[in-house]
Every structure is written in structure tokens, then in C-alpha cells.
Task: structure prediction
Amino acid sequence: MSVMKTLSKISATFFFSITLLFVSGLVSCKKEENPIKFPFGTFPDTATFALTDLNTEYDDYNLDIYQIYNNVILFFSSNRHSMGEDFDLVQGMVSFLWDQTSGAFGFGCEVTNDPFLTQLASRVNTSGNEFGPYRFFSTVDGYEYLLISSQNEDGDLDFYYCKNQPALGTALPVISGPFPVSLLNTVNDDAYICFDTNQDTAIFSTNAGGNFDIFIATRPAETDPETWFSGLYSEASVAVDSVNSSSDDKCPFIFGDIMVFASDRPGGMGGFDLYMSVFRNGKWSTAENLGPDINTQYDEYRPVTGTVNNYTNLLLMFSSNRPGGKGGFDLYFRGMSDPVE
Result:
């Protein structure tokens, strides 16, 4: 009888141990909840944010975005150094933050002092005005280029360019220039040049016809930018009739199949407004006002747009002299949906 009791106790203990191991196994194998609920960020498109730590009481505008990651490197025009007189190029950076667990969005910005950008700015800044910087890397010759509009001896705006080997590491590359873009410069004001994604079409504005209009010029695929820029003046550039008006149309910027620009044409919110055109079926669509969520009764100027890694919508950056800033023109940004999608 005692033997039977002992066997029963052993069996019960064994069964309890197996059950405990089984339950423990279930607990240990239970998949932990994934803390990432918002894997992709979205730039808020219901509010416009001032880049407060970059702005001053003077005019800060005409920005260019050269590298777009979570940190955006900016090169922009400001008359802060001359206390409101002439415009020079200034550098800065914006950092975007996206909390993947809560979906919270944040950003920070600061004026920077990158040695290469400091050297680049010193090459092009003059006692006159420098407007509309645009930097790009050429896949044809492997050089980086900076394009700007700067005042010539007659006080008119002309295009100029600098070139250098890509800035890598701590060694500062040799910068050549600035040289005039003789192919496109007129006896009038020529300003705000950029390239399309394929780098085969330059788009810019000029007031050679009396008011500012937007023009395009095509670069031959086998010709590097420097050779093309240095050519004799040509009237090969053509006006983009579908976006131009009888008013001033200027500051064009292309990203993919989207063109954004500024215009003071009738029918807007007031002053200069931001407009958009989409390249469809081989031509640019009729320009559309970006609406009261972006534009105000004041001036909105020099828009640029692009994508940022792991964000679902476009980033739109521009300048405005609307109330609520630090003074004059200030830099702003917000999200914008992609009309091509």
C-alpha cells in the first residue's frame, strides 16, 4: 500500500512538473508586442512651421536644399550680416524627428559653420546681392556645382557658377569660380535657376520681356555643365507658356514631375503666392494656386520641395513676410501631398 502511495506521489509530481514546464514554455514563447506603431513619418500639412532658430529680424529667404535625409542642409540668402542691406549666402541645418511609437513629429534647426560651406560662401559673396542658390552633383563630369544669381557691374542679376570635387572627409576641395553662365545671361535680370531630375533641362526666370517669366533650356546629354554654361549666349531657351502670366512669375523649382514657383498674378491670396504645375503628356499643366493653407495676403517666395527618407509626403519649404515671424522674410516649412501619386 505504501508502495502504491509512493508511486502516486511520484506520478503527481511528474505531471505537475511537466504542466509547469508547458505553461512556462507558453509564457516564454509569447511574442512581445511590437513597439513600432508608426513606422513612417508624415510632415504635418495642416500647419506651417517657422524655422525660428534660422530666422532673424532681417530678410531670410531663397533657400536651397542640397542633401535631404533626416538632416536637411540649407544654403539661403540673408541680409543679416549687412543689417538689412545686401544679401549674402548663409548656411544652416534642419533636423526632423519622428517617434515611431507615438507618431509625434518634431524638428530642430540651427545656423551651422561647416568649413566647406563657409569656404564656398566666401567665394561667391560680394558687396552686392546673391540670390537663389542651387547646388547639384553632375553625373556627367563628377563635379559639384553651385549656381547663384549675383549683381554684375551694371547692377543687373546674372547667373554665376562654381565647381569643385565632392567634399569628402576633412580635406577641403579646391573651388573654381565664380564664372558667368554666358549661355543664359541677358542684359536684364536673370534669377533662380535649377535643373530637373535628369539634369538635362535648366529652368529659370528672367525679365528680358519686361516682367519675370519662366524659361527652360535643354542641355545636350553628352555636354558637361561647365562646357554648356560657358557657351555663347543662345536664344534656344523657351518660355513655359502654360505657367507664365502677364505678371511676375519667378523662383521655379522642379522635383520629379512637379514644378513650384512664385507669382503675383491676379486671383491669388495677395502679393506673391506659391503655384504648382505638373508635367503630364509631355507638357507642363496649367498652374494652380497652392491655396489659403499655404498662401497668405502677404508674399510667399522661392518654394523648394522634395522627399525625406521614411516620410510619406513631400516637404515644402519657402519664405514669407507674413506676420508672426522675426521680421522681414522668414523661412517656413510644411508637408504637401504629391499630386502625381
In short: The CA atoms of residues 182 and 230 lie 5 Å apart. Confidence is low (pLDDT under 50) at residues 1-23.
